[in-house]
Specification:
This protein is an all-alpha fold. It contains five helices and no strands. The protein is elongated and about 110 Å long.
Length: 142
């Protein structure tokens, strides 16, 4: 999220009332916080991307050994899908940025709600004086 979008969210949050802030908080909840389900296509795709990234990085970071280079030993050939790897990395980066943006918006909403709660606590609610309480109790007893 760039600075203009962040400023836009700050102005929108400043104008929201309590119910709108609570709805925004629920909407900005972290999607990774919900339990994993194989019926959720987004979760399955995210898991497949993580698997592709992990296996590709493991193959690219493998230390070459001399096994198979001697007589009678054959070398293994591995095909790496770099296009898929870079697409998965880009999607993971975009998802991480989206999570960070959501967390930032959620934090702004929580700060605004905390400010609203604090202001409600500061409201002056006149308490009945002891004399007024005595008069009220005396009139009620008659």
């Amino acid at each position: 999220m760039d600075d203009v979008e962040l400023l836009d969210w700050q102005f929108r949050i400043a104008k929201m009332d309590r119910s709108e802030l609570e709805v925004t908080l629920r909407a900005m909840a972290d999607p990774d916080a919900k339990p994993f389900s194989l019926h959720d296509p987004e979760a399955v795709a995210r898991l497949a991307r993580q698997s592709l990234i992990g296996s590709t990085e493991a193959m690219l970071n493998r230390v070459p050994s001399n096994v198979g280079s001697g007589p009678g030993g054959g070398k293994r050939t591995v095909t790496v899908d770099l296009h898929g790897y870079y697409e998965a990395k880009t999607a993971e980066d975009a998802e991480a940025q989206d999570r960070a943006d959501r967390a930032e918006i959620r934090a702004m909403c929580e700060r605004r709600l905390a400010h609203m709660r604090h202001r409600e606590e500061l409201r002056h609610v006149p308490e009945t004086s002891p004399l007024k309480a005595f008069i009220t109790a005396y009139e009620a007893s008659e």
